[in-house]
Amino acid sequence: MTDLYERSFRDILALAGSTAPTPGGGSIAAMAAALGTSMLQMVARLTLARKKYQDVAAQVTEVLTRSEALQSQFEALLSADMEAFDAVMAALRLPAETQEQQMIRQAKQRNATEQATRVPLSLAQACCEGLELALQLAPIGNQRAISDVGVGAQLLGAAAASALLSVDINLPALGESPFAREAAAQRDRLRQQAADHVSQCMEKVSSRLAE
């Protein structure tokens, strides 16, 4: 468990609102995503606790198992995001007095920036996987708690959109490289996919609320 997870919620809020370089937007997005999966887990457990939903127990159990795995992944991505940003800052602090130092500094900056782009892309991808679970749970979950599937979906969607903003800010520093072009294409795909999933899930949740 990452050290940030061991802090109190008040401590996390204070740290996030301070001038400390981390946790930043990517790390907070990972926390929001973890909260989103916790909502799915709650609804899944409330569904499994009721006999009237026994016909969908296998599907709900699968959602629960996969959402627990995703939650662990979000914790790992939170740590990876903080490490990636720290590496970018460390590269910026390297000396650049000689030509050799400048070349080393530039190479480390590029490598660190690429990694700081990979992590939020991975986070957004995981968020989309979480949204797919929400889409599966929305039609079959406990109707009395179905609004919380919507809460989970909204959190996961916001987390994906927030993570991709980190990609937006990193790409200009990477120029027109093949990596940058591929990352931009992946960003655009994930942004649309997450938005579509949220919209579809909320339609299902709204329909269940009207039952």
Describe the structure.
There is one protein chain. With 211 residues, the protein is mainly α. It has a single domain (22-209), classed as Four Helix Bundle (Hemerythrin (Met), subunit A), CATH 1.20.120. Helices cover 78% and strands 0% of the residues. The longest helix has 39 residues, at 99-137. The protein is elongated, with a radius of gyration of 20 Å.
Short précis:
This protein has helices spanning 9-16, 25-48, 57-92, 99-137, 146-170, 178-209.
Helix content: over 70%
CATH architecture: Up-down Bundle
Q: How is the biggest beta sheet arranged?
A: none
Q: Mean pLDDT, as a whole number?
A: 96
CATH topology: Four Helix Bundle (Hemerythrin (Met), subunit A)
What's the tally of helices?
6
Q: How many individual domains? A: 1
User: Whole-Å distance between the termini?
Assistant: 41 Å
General form: elongated
What's the number of extended β-strand segments?
A: 0
In terms of DSSP E residues, the strand content is under 5%
Give descriptors for this structure.
211 residues, mainly alpha, Four Helix Bundle (Hemerythrin (Met), subunit A), 6 helices
Q: In terms of topology, how is this protein built?
A:
Blueprint lengths: L8 H8 L8 H24 L8 H36 L6 H39 L8 H25 L7 H32 L2
Helix pairs in contact: 2-3, 2-4, 2-5, 3-4, 4-5, 4-6, 5-6
